[in-house]
Design a protein that fits this description.
Helix content: 25-40%
Strand order of the largest sheet: 6-5-4-1-7
Largest sheet: 5 strands, mixed
Structural class: alpha+beta
CATH architecture of the largest domain: Alpha-Beta Complex
CATH superfamily of the largest domain: Creatinase/methionine aminopeptidase superfamily
Radius of gyration: 26 Å
Strand content: 5-15%
CATH topology of the largest domain: Creatine Amidinohydrolase
Number of domains: 2
Mean pLDDT: 90
Number of strands: 17
Bound molecules: glycine, manganese (II) ion
Low-confidence stretches: 1-21, 227-263
Number of helices: 17
């Protein structure tokens, strides 16, 4: 067996950040004596039963893998979890697997650095069962770095993987139990990927941007064979030759294999990245449940923040009190935050991604809190409320707030099956432009501003109104435009509705009373059979309700 400390990479290449010799060895005082080695590797009780049971995700991930299989028949699909990432020297960031890997395996928090899911092509109908037990045309294998025995150096000497350092990681059996997927040692990856490559053979496709070592290995294997990146495989959903109709969009999402068009465009890694991203556009039942969980934990986090507002006002870095209160809640009740918390007070709220959060909270100003809890399964909410620090909106704040709220309501009204995704934004923009016109801020009539040649209203809201949400805060980001922006809404889609208005302190195009005010209201919406459901509706959003809710929490 190879040195268990050596990370798997192509042909012995070890990335600098994984080279254990460079990870703090110059200050190592670990004894080298045989007596020490003999003693530390002996005298351990048998491992306790960790009580590992199958994840609830097991039947759902089988269906997700079968759908991916239908979309890319004949190709070997490589989906890495990704490696640990170095923060500095021998210190790593907390691990989070790539979202495509989490989606297809069900593995969440901290699971499992360096693992690689491979869908091996096995011929139509000969693969793993998917929906309703119907066999797919791939067999899934998870290649993992299993827990090392206690008589190895890894056990006590490896600060990255060793049980003494990071705890007991799962064995191959544990991984199989958890995921329902056959588990093999990572050392077998290279040979498994190399099998049947070559002219007329199997094509390798890898999810890029997750694990450089695996990508290098795939490149090396491609170079060793003459297959190149093309093969006699057809991307059944490739629609680059013509634009699909909205109905075809729907069909392609419902049945990825049954999509129209059989262009002979060659498959590339991008085909797999795209397919894995598009697979998440419509959430299954368990994903919706995970989203509800993430939203519920997030609402509790907002409540916790309102309770600490007096403390935040008293602190010179009140925004940090807000941030750490929310983030602490996320760590306690979930895995982490799904993205860096935006705790923006006063004028900071006009900086869309204000994450420095080092400002004061002043009575009479607004606090914009954009935050989401990511739960253990790695699904995240993404919610924004703009709250009066002293518990009551003043007249100008309320006027701006209500304009944003009306824009959000207009977006909700059209966020129903059959609407184009981009028209949700259009509905919100109509309200925003109308209000800006009413207030005399637009240099042209609202109707002109709303034309593609105009767009002056966007000076005060430069971001979009919606993005898909799920395992990633900006989920499905690699989906094709025709299925995302130009895609048609259907039941099971989850996205944000988050209009805003931001008047910078030095904006000479608005009256003084508007300057330094930023408002965003963001909710998470689930498209249902006959409309939509605001998943975050339990968090008050109408100004009177916000004030009453704040008063109730502050006692
Ligand atoms: N909540 C941050 C964003 O959507 O970009
Ligand atoms: Mn958002």
């Amino acid at each position: 067996m190879s040195d268990p400390r050596t990370p798997h990479t192509a042909d012995g290449h070890v990335p600098a950040d994984q080279d254990l010799e460079s990870r703090g060895s110059t200050r190592s005082q670990r004894p080298e004596s045989q007596a020490f080695k003999d003693f530390i590797t002996s005298g351990w009780a048998p491992r306790a039963d960790l009580g590992i049971t199958p994840l609830r995700e097991v039947p759902f991930t089988a269906v997700r893998r079968a759908r991916l299989s239908e979309r890319l028949p004949g190709a070997r699909l490589v989906i890495p979890a990704g490696p640990l990432k170095t923060r500095s020297n021998d210190t790593d960031y907390r691990f989070r697997p790539h979202s495509a890997f989490a989606h297809l395996t069900g593995l969440g928090t901290d699971q499992e650095p360096d693992a690689v899911l491979v869908l091996h092509p096995v011929g139509t109908g000969a693969g793993d069962p998917g929906a309703d037990g119907v066999p797919s045309s791939h067999h899934a294998v998870l290649y993992v770095r299993p827990l090392a025995p206690r008589d190895t150096e890894e056990f006590y000497a490896d600060s990255r993987y060793g049980e003494f350092w990071v705890g007991a990681r799962p064995s191959l059996d544990d991984v199989e139990t958890l995921t329902g997927i056959e588990a093999r040692h990572i050392d077998e990856l290279r040979d498994a990927l190399a099998k049947d490559l070559g002219d007329g053979g199997v094509q390798l496709l890898v999810v890029t941007g997750s694990d450089e070592g695996v990508e290098t290995l795939v490149e090396a294997l491609r170079a060793e064979t003459s297959t190149g990146t093309e093969a006699e495989v057809t991307d059944l959903t490739d629609t680059t030759e013509r634009s699909p109709s909205p109905r075809e969009d729907l069909a392609s999402l419902r049945n990825l294999a049954g999509a129209p068009g059989t262009s002979s465009a060659p498959l590339t890694d991008a085909s797999l990245v795209e397919a894995a991203s598009e697979l998440r556009l419509v959430k299954d039942e368990l994903e919706v449940e995970r989203m509800r969980e993430a939203v519920a934990r997030t609402i509790e986090g907002f409540e916790a923040v309102v309770r600490v507002l007096p403390k935040a006002v008293a602190h010179r870095r009140g925004e940090r009190v807000v941030e750490t209160t929310f983030d602490g809640h996320a760590r306690l009740e979930g895995n982490a935050v799904g993205y860096e918390t935006i705790a923006a007070s006063g004028e900071h709220a006009t900086t869309l991604h204000w994450i420095t959060n080092d400002g004061e909270l002043r009575e009479g100003e607004l606090l914009l809190l954009d935050a989401g809890v990511e739960v253990e399964s790695l699904y995240t909410a993404d919610v924004t409320r703009t709250l009066p620090v002293n518990g009551e909106f003043d007249e100008v704040q309320r006027r701006i707030y209500e304009a944003v709220l009306d824009a959000a309501d207009a977006a909700f009204a059209v966020a129903v099956p059959g609407t184009k995704f981009r028209d949700v934004h259009a509905a919100a923009m109509e309200v925003i432009a109308a209000r800006l016109e009413e207030w005399g801020l637009l240099p042209v009539p609202a109707a002109e501003s709303l034309t593609p040649e105009g767009q002056q209203h966007r000076r005060w809201m430069v971001h979009g109104t919606s993005h898909h949400l799920g395992l990633d805060v900006h989920d499905c980001a690699q989906a094709r435009r025709e299925l995302y922006l130009d895609g048609v809404l259907e039941p099971g889609m989850v996205f944000t509705i988050e209009p805003g208005l931001y008047f910078k302190a030095d904006d000479l195009a608005v009256p003084g009373e508007y300057r330094g005010i930023g408002v965003r209201i963001e909710d998470d919406v689930l498209v249902t059979e006959d409309g939509n459901e605001n998943l975050s509706a339990a968090l008050p959003r109408r100004p009177d309700d916000v004030e009453a809710w704040m008063a109730s929490l502050r006692g």
